[in-house]
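Note to self: the last two entries modelled the partners one at a time, which told us nothing about the interface. This time every component goes in together.
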Amino acid sequence: MKKISLEIGKSIPRFDAFAKVTGKEKYASDFWSPDMLWAGVKRAGVPHARIRGIKTDEAISIPGVLSVLTSRDVKGTNRQGVVRKDQPVLADDRVRHCGDPVALVVAKDRETLAMALSAIELDLEPLQAVFDPEKALEQGAPLVHERNLERNLLLKGSLETGKGEAAFEECDETVEAEFRLPHQEHAYLETEAGWAILRDGVLEITASTQSPFRDRYEMAEAIGFDMHRVRIIAPYCGGAFGGKDGITVQSLLGLAALNNPGRPVKMWWSREESILASAKRHPARLYYKLGAKKDGAFHALSARVYFDTGPYDHLGGAVMALGLEHSGGPYRIPNANLKAWSVFTNNPIGGPFRGFGVTQANAAMEQMVDLMAKRVGISPLDIRLKNALRRGDRNPAGVTLTGSTGIGECLKKIPASRLWQERETWKKAAPLYKKRGAGLASAMQGMGYGPLIPDTANAKIELNRDGRFRVFCGVVDMGQGNASTYLQIAGEILNQDMSGVELVLPDTARTLPSGSSSASRTTFTYGNALIKASKILKQRLLEKAADLLMAKGSEEMDIVPGCVRHMPSGKEMPLSALAGILSEAERTSVARYRTPSAKESPASDPLLTLHGIPHIIFSYAAHAAFVEIDTLTGRIEVKCYLAITDCGRILNPQAFEQQIHGGIAQGLGYALCEELKVDHGMILTPDLGTYIIPTSMDLPDMESSAVELHEENGPFGLKGAGEIAVNGPYPAVANAIADACGIRILEGPMTAERVLGALNALQRGEAQ
Amino acid sequence: MKKISLEIGKSIPRFDAFAKVTGKEKYASDFWSPDMLWAGVKRAGVPHARIRGIKTDEAISIPGVLSVLTSRDVKGTNRQGVVRKDQPVLADDRVRHCGDPVALVVAKDRETLAMALSAIELDLEPLQAVFDPEKALEQGAPLVHERNLERNLLLKGSLETGKGEAAFEECDETVEAEFRLPHQEHAYLETEAGWAILRDGVLEITASTQSPFRDRYEMAEAIGFDMHRVRIIAPYCGGAFGGKDGITVQSLLGLAALNNPGRPVKMWWSREESILASAKRHPARLYYKLGAKKDGAFHALSARVYFDTGPYDHLGGAVMALGLEHSGGPYRIPNANLKAWSVFTNNPIGGPFRGFGVTQANAAMEQMVDLMAKRVGISPLDIRLKNALRRGDRNPAGVTLTGSTGIGECLKKIPASRLWQERETWKKAAPLYKKRGAGLASAMQGMGYGPLIPDTANAKIELNRDGRFRVFCGVVDMGQGNASTYLQIAGEILNQDMSGVELVLPDTARTLPSGSSSASRTTFTYGNALIKASKILKQRLLEKAADLLMAKGSEEMDIVPGCVRHMPSGKEMPLSALAGILSEAERTSVARYRTPSAKESPASDPLLTLHGIPHIIFSYAAHAAFVEIDTLTGRIEVKCYLAITDCGRILNPQAFEQQIHGGIAQGLGYALCEELKVDHGMILTPDLGTYIIPTSMDLPDMESSAVELHEENGPFGLKGAGEIAVNGPYPAVANAIADACGIRILEGPMTAERVLGALNALQRGEAQ
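The predicted structure of the combined assembly is written out below.
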C-alpha cells in the first residue's frame, strides 16, 4: 500500500478495496451494539385507501416493544421530498401505494419487531386507484392527491426549436413509433439501512444515503427537530444508483430515536421491503416521430413522453425534465417539438435512477434513428455520423454546445473495432436456429444540477500532525470509487503516494456540504473543489517551508512524498515537522466549486429550469451490441458489447472501466430481463428470485475505450462517467435484435417471451 | 462606536482608545493575582569583571523568598540574542556591563524581593574594560568576549560603487567632517514587564514584547524548555520603539516560573532598572567625505561609521548594516566607498531603536549635504533637489530603485509651505540676543527584514458565529495603532463598520506568526497578508450566500454591514445566519505575505546580506526645522517643524500623523536634550530626572503632510511610516543651528552647553 503512486491517468487500486474485501469497512447496515433497538414499519399493502383506524394496542403490549408510533406522533410537517414535499413519513389520512408506511415500531430485537408489526391492524377503506399514466390525466380519473391543483399531473414540460411540428411538411421521410419502457429496481447489494441515536441533544444518524447534507434539513423539517442538532454520517454505500438520493430510513429512524433517547436504533430493510417500498426507475411511454431529408439529415422531431412517477414527486419532475431535455439524442435536429409529462398513479414510486429519465428517452430515440436509417437506406453508423452534434451546434433542447462534444469522435471509433469490422462474417457464422445481429446506439448525459440549484461542492483538506494529507469528502462514495479518485487528485497535486493521504467520509459534523452523489457530478464537482483546495494548501506549505528554510521564495520549493524540498540545495523539511509548526487554520484549506450551467434558456416553462435544465456539459458514448437469438425459444444472448465513451480525460482507467462495465450491465438488465411485474399497484415480483437481475454469467465480453477529449471545465479535463453507459444497452440491443431478425420489440424488457411472440407474429406476417 | 466607518483613507479613531483611556486595557504590567510571586534580578554594577562567587545563603533564608537562582540553575544554553546568541540569561563566568543580571530572586512580594536582592553578595574580580569603540579595535585592547575570533569586532561591512574613493580625484569640491552621535534611551511609558505561569506543562508568558513568536524559540532554547510547550501572549505595549524587539524579561520570567510551577510570577522593571539594563540606540562615530562637481552634483562619497554595540550583538550587526546601507542618503552618488563597524565595548547594550542605525547615518550625511551646498554656493534645497534619487536610479548602496521613490516630490513640496516661504522675514524678526535659522534634512528608511530572513506575515480572519469578523493579529501593536489599521483594512474589504469587526492580539497559541513589530513593516506586511485573507473569506462568503440564496453566482452578491446581499433582488442573508451554517474551516481564512526584497546584491560581504541588506522599498521624507537660539545661554528652541513624507498611500491620516509627530518628537529629543551620560561604563543619568526627554511643552508646532505616491507592493499602496520621521530632526536642527549662527555642533546631543561653547569658540575665532 505504501508506495502506490497516485498519478492522474494511472489505474490506482481503490483505497477502500482491502477494507471492503476483508469485511472491515463498516456499511450503515453493519452498526451493532448490545443495547441497540430495532425499528421497522407496517406498510399499507393496498395501493389506495383512506385510513379509518390503526389498532396498535396489541402490538404495544408485546414485551420488548418500546414504541408504536403513527402519524400523530410526528411533530414536524410529516412530509418529505427533494423538490415537492408530498411524501408522508407515516401515512396520515391516506395510503397511496402498497409500500406506504403507516406505523413505526421500535422493539428490543428483530423477532419482537416482526411480531409487533404483524399485530398491528389497519382499518383501511379502499379507494379507486389509477395505474395508467395516460388514463390518470383524463378527466374523472381517481385522484392520487385530492388537493393537487393539476389533478394527477406532477409536471409537464415542452421544448420547441425551429419550426417545431410544422417542419415535418419539409421532410422527405418520416418514421413514427411508440415505446413502453418498464420499471427498474435499483437492486443494490445493500438494502436501505441506518442507525440513529439521540445523545446530548444531538440526533446522530448513520445511514446509507447519497445526500447526507440534504437529508439533514429534509428530515429535520419532516420530524420537527432542529436541523443544527442533526448529524448525518454517510459511510460507503453498498450501491445506490439513485435509490438513496433522498430519504429512505432517515426520518423513520429519527422518529424512533427521538422517542427512545440515549439508545441506538437500527433499521434495515429486507430485500422484500426494499422492493416494495423503494423508488424505481420510472416506466415511460414514448410517442416519437422523426423526419429527415432524403440524404438522411434529420429535420424534424416530435416526442411525447409520459413518465409514471407513482404517488409522489421524489424527483419525478426532475427526471421528466432531464428525459425531455435529452429526448432528441446527440443530434442536430433543427426543428423539434418535445413534450413530457410526469404523472401521479398508485403504482410504486418512481424516482431517481442512474440515467435519470435519459435512459428511457434514449431507448426510444436511438431506435427511431435506426428506423430512419433503414427508411432512407443509409447505414445506422453513417446516419448517426451525419447527424452527430459538434461543438458549437445547438442540441435538440436549443442549447449551444460550448464544451467538448465527442459523440462524433466516439462514433468514428466504432469501425476501428474488429468486432464491428468482422460483424457480417460473425453474423453469417450463426449456429442452427440462431440469428445474429449487431446494433448501434449513441448516448448522451448532462452533468450536474443544471442552472437553478447551485451545483456546488466544498472541499476541505488538512495536513495532519503526522505529515499525511487528510481529505474531508462531503460527497458520498456509493460504491463507484469517487472517494479513491479524490485521494488520487490530492496525491497528484501534493505529490504524495497512497501512504501520504487519508480520507474522511461524509459527515455533516466534519466534512463540508458538497451536494448529492448523483447527476454524474461527484468527481467533476468535488474534484474541482478539491483541486482548488489542494493547490491553496500546497502553495501555503511551500511558502511556509520557504520561510522556515530561509529560501528566496516558494518558487524554489516543491513537495515530494513526505517532505517539502528546497530544490536548489536539496534540503528537506518533513511534512510532519512543518505540520508541527503550523496552526490548524494554516494546515487546513477549503475551497468551493460551482459547476457552470447553460446561459441560454430553451424557450419554455420556467418550471423546467427549476427542475434542472438545461445543461451545458455532456458526456457522450457510442455503443454496439452483438446479439444472438435463439429463434426456437426467443432467448437472447448478448455475445459481445462495445462501448466508446467521451467523458473527457480519464483520471483512473480502472475506475472508469468499472463505471462503464457496471452501467452496461445495469443497462442490459433493463433491456432484457429485469421485469417488475405490477398488477393494480401490487408488485408480483417481490424478491430477487422473481425479479431477475443479470449475474456476471449473463454478461457479455465488453470492450470499452474512450476518446479523451479535454473538457476545459473539468478536473484535469474530466467529465462525469457515472451514468452515460446505462443509456446505450437498451437501444443497442433493440437495434441488434432488429438487425438479426427484422423484429422490433416496442415494450420492454425484451424478454424471450416477447421476442418469440414477435418472431411468431413476423412469421404470421403480422405488422409490428 | 457602532456606526464608525472603516473606509480606507479616513481618519478612524483607534479601536483601543476607549479601553486605554479608561484604564480597562490590560498591559503586561497590569496582570495581578492574590497568589502571584515577584521576580527580580541582582545586576552586576560594574562594567567588566570575573565572577568569583555569588553568596545567596542570606537571601534564600529570608522568609518569603522562594528561589534564588544563578546561571547554574539554567538548564538551556543560557544564551539569548536574535542573530548571535551571546547574551547570558544570568551571567555565568563574567559580567560585561553594569546591567548584566547575575542572580534571579523569586519572592512573595516586592519588599521581600528587594531585601533578598540586597542580601546577595557578589564576589567580582574587576577586569580591564574598554569603552571607546575605535580603541576597542586596536591590538591589545581588553576583550569583551575573550573567545570571539575577531576580538572586539562584532561585524564590519563595506559597500563600494563606481570608482569608490578614486572618484574624489574627479571632484571639484570636497567637504569632510566627523560626527559623534550619542546613545538614546527608549524611555517608553511602560517599562519592561511580564507575567508567567507554568501550568499543565505549558509555560505561558504574557510580556511587553515586540516579537512574541521569536521570543518563544529564543527563550525556550536559552532556558532549556520545549518550545512547543511555550505560549507567549503579547498585549498592547506601552511603547517599545525597538527596545522590546528581543528578550527583556521573558527568559528570566520563564526561569522563575519553571522553578515555581503553578503560581504566577510577575517581573516589572523600575525605570532605573530599565535605564540600567535595557538596550539603547547605538552611539556612533561617523567620518564623512563628500565630493561634488562644480554644479553641486554629488560625485563621490566616503563614509566610515563605528557603532558601539556594548557587550552583546542584540541586533547590533543588523543596525550597523542598515546604517551602512543608508549612509549615502537618498541621493544619486555614482561613486561611493562606505564602511562600517559594529564594535563590542563594556558600555550599555546597543540595540534596535526606531531608525535602526539610519538615524545616526542620516544625521551625518544630511549635514554633509549642507556643508557641500555652502561650499558650491547652492541653496540647501536646490542641492537636495538636484541630487535626489528618482525611480530607476541606483542608490548609494548600489540598488536600482524599482518602487515608488518620492524624495524629490517631498522636497518639491517644501517651498509650498508658508513657514518656508517666509523664513527670511521670520529669521530677521528674531528678538534681542536670539538668532533664528531654518534647516533642511532629507530622510529615507528601508522597509522590512531585507533579503535573507523571509519577511513574512500570516493573517487569519474569521467570521464569528455572531456575524462579526475577528482579525487574528500576529504582529504586536506597541502603541503605534497598527492593530486598529488592521480592523480598518478588514472593514474596508468586507464592508463592515467598527461594530462588525474585532481583534485578537498576538498570542502564539491563537494567532499566526507574523514577525516582529519592527522595521517599518507591520502594516505593510501583515496588512498585505490580511488583505489576501479578507478577500479570500469575502469571496467564500459571497459564493456560499449565492449558493444558499440560489443566485446565479457570487458576482450577483455583495457584503453590506452585517449581511450578504443579493444585489438584483435585494434579498439579504445576515452574516450571523451564514456563520451558523458554515463550518469553522469555512468561516476562517488564512493568508501569508512575503515582502519583496532587492534582487541585486551590492558587491560586498555576504554577511551583510545575512544582516538584512539591501532593501528595495523605502519611505522618504523632507523635513525642515525652524530654531531660535539664545546666544546668551545657548538654549535652543525649535519653534516650528515641517515634515513632508512619502510613505505611499495614507490609510488612516490620523494614525499617520501620530507616527510622524511621534517620530519628530523622539528625533528632537535625540537632537537636543537626551543625553545618556556614561562614564567608564557607568550610567550617570540613571533616571528620568537626569536623562531628559522632551515633554509636549518642549515640542514645536508641527506641520505634516504627505505625497501619496502609490507603492504597488503596498497594502492599498502604503509604505511603512513608523520610523522615517525620527531620521530628520537631528540633521534638520543641526543645519538650522548652522543657518542661525554659523556654528556646527559635531557631537550630540546639541545641548545648550555645546551650543554656547561653539558660539564662544566662534567668537574667539577658533576653527570648528
